[in-house]
Amino acid sequence: MEGEAREESEEGSDCSLYKETDHSQRCFKEMAQLWYEKQYCDVHLMIVDSFDSPTSAILAHRVVLAAVIPYFKAMFESHMREKEEKEITLHNLTPTAVKLIVEYAYTGQVRVSPHTAQDLLVTADKFGLTEIVSFTARYISRQLCSSNCLGIREFALQQSLVELHKDAAQFVIQNFTAVSKEDEFLQLSLEKIVELVRSDDIRVESEEDVYHAVTLWIYHNSEERGEHADVLYNHIRFPLTPQRFLDNVASKNPYLQSAKGQVYLKDAYEYYKNPGVTIFSNPKKTQPRHSVQGIICVVGGVDDGGSSLSDVTLYNPHNKEWTDGPKMRFRRSRLAVALFQGELYAVGGHDLGYSLTTCEKYSPSDRMWKPVCDLETARRSLALVPVGNRLFAMGGYTGSIYLKSVEVYNPTVDEWSPGPPMLEARSELAAVLLDNRIYAIGGSNSSGDLKSVEVYDLLNKKWELIATMEMPRTGGAACLLGEEIFFSGGMGGKEIYNVASSYDPETDMWEQIACRMNDCRVGLAAVSLGNIVYVLGGSNGSRYLETVEYYDPSRLTWLQGTSLPFPRFAAAAVTLSRNELMDS
Questions:
Q1: CA-CA distance, 573 to 520, in Å (whole number)?
Q2: Which of 83, 77, 159, 81 minimizes the C-alpha distance to 121?
Q3: DSSP for 175-188?
Q4: Of the residues 238, 261, 286, which one is the last residue of a structural domain?
Q5: DSSP of 408-434, one letter per residue?
Q6: Exposure of 488 by Cβ count < 10 A (0-12 exposed, 13-18 middle, 19+ buried)?
Q7: Does some domain include residue 15?
Q8: pLDDT digit string (tens) for 557-583?
Q9: Same domain, yes or no: 314 and 166
């Protein structure tokens, strides 16, 4: 076979060079033809099964294997006995996958299919063909589905394929309900099941989905698995299921008739009667999984014309759309909001130059805002935290006085009463509840902007200072991210920040997040939804912002979100389940 060639003159010489432009390609094509015809092959690859019995022999040319496959090059250049032997034994590989790799050595291409992908990846990895390993791993990732993702996750873990394992694990989490109905799920070990059902991140429509998954796994082999029922049902968040589900389904489950099972149900019934009064050894019992926390609700604030707002705006992350919710009775900026006993409370705030005492709540059953008992002290730039069956309103500014006082709301009698005052007066503070402790973070008072943080222990009933932030910050926003507190934005002196920090209660340390927000923000709102932190609106010092961005801890970066319908400063935000306010 003749190839393409050209003649070249060598400068400064009377020689002429004949050069084939496709010589290498033509030679390998000829070598491949010889291999297909099994001519001049000088090495036999013996594929041995787990019983050390040869199952197949693949012929090849030693020089081609050495030229293309690092495993054989190292073998033939070493002092291993296979260097001179005609037969080379290969263990724990499949004939099909080895043949595909040998064919690749001659042709430079390999065909991957669902039936060969995993064996091919193992073989390519053993042979040192990293590019084929990466290519095949990406192919397997694209084939993920509810029936194979658990097996692929385990395969990737065994093969130390970090990205494939991450993709498979994420697929399991994002598609938990569908995955739980597949045979692979039913074959999981107890440890693997517990790892899944205890996670905040599994995506489900409701807590009942997790219950059904656990029950299905137990009944698949009830003789052996029934003894583990107490362990598994302990991770079901029964207080978050409807009472009719407990009455008609859970209470009739024979595996919940044990002493521990009855405690799980009893605690749930008690929680229905008095939310927050029942103390759970596992605080997650009453914390919705991230996927169930369906929408973001932004309330009040100031528009770019300087007017306080009564607007309520709802964001659905699934379709990335903002819609209007039911407007409040009063316009409010610098207010505080909280979801409390299934109702949305808006407390205090500012309008027309005055701090407000008025409060109101929205009940989905009534489909309207209703007045609530006024605060004893007018407050704007305050913080509001639901604690059991009470609401704590903390700090703020009257218009002339910075406040450290706390008021506690009792919904049974519709009354505010004095609570334990903070150690410092704080306006424009942020506050969260974590593990029976209220954290009051930053803010400002007559002394200036604060970097101090104090915590109120509900058991010891006293405030105490904890680790300070890296710098003074007022007008920032805080929310929970897993077991840590995430604090975004704010300002100190005249500088508005685009930084975020996290606080770990275990170490009592603040750590600044390496990645900065795209916009500097003060007077922003922040919520966590599905293990993502959203920051909304605020001011960058020169204008009010409509922009939204969100922090994804799995990517360690801030990403641009869907903007608010209009610029908004000093609004408040909260996460709601999908059914609350959505149909209003």
A1: 18
A2: 159
A3: THHHHTTSHHHHT-
A4: 286
A5: EEETTTTEEEE-PPPSS--BS-EEEEE
A6: buried
A7: yes
A8: 999 999 999 999 999 999 986 544 544
A9: no
At residue 88, what is the residue type?
Answer: I
End-of-domain residue from the set 261, 286, 311: 286
310 and 356 Cβ atoms separated by less than 8 Å: no
Amino acid at the residue 390 = R
Question: Cα separation of 97 and 86, whole Å?
Answer: 21
Q: Is residue 539 domain-shared with residue 399, that is, in the same domain?
A: yes
Contact 369, 330 (CB under 8 A): no
Residue 539: phi and psi, rounded to 5, are -135, 145
**Stated length of the chain:** 584
Helices (H), 92-197: 95-107, 117-127, 130-142, 149-158, 162-174, 176-179, 183-186, 190-197
What's the number of domains the chain is made of? 3
Give the CATH number of the domain where residue 222 resides.
1.25.40
What pTM, to 2 d.p., does this model score? 0.58
Domain range holding 251? 198-286
**Cα–Cα nearest to 446, from 403, 496, 406, 475:** 403
Residue 56 carries which side chain, given as an amino acid letter?
S
What span, in angstroms and rounded, lies between the C-alpha atoms of 59 and 424?
Answer: 82
Smallest Cα–Cα separation from 203: which of 293, 315, 297? 293
Strands 87-91 and 43-48: parallel
Say yes or no: 392 and 367 in one domain: yes
Mean predicted confidence (pLDDT) in 201-208: 87
pLDDT tens track for 136-153:
999 999 999 999 999 999
Angstrom distance (rounded) from CA 349 to CA 344:
15
Residue written as token pair 């229905």: 272
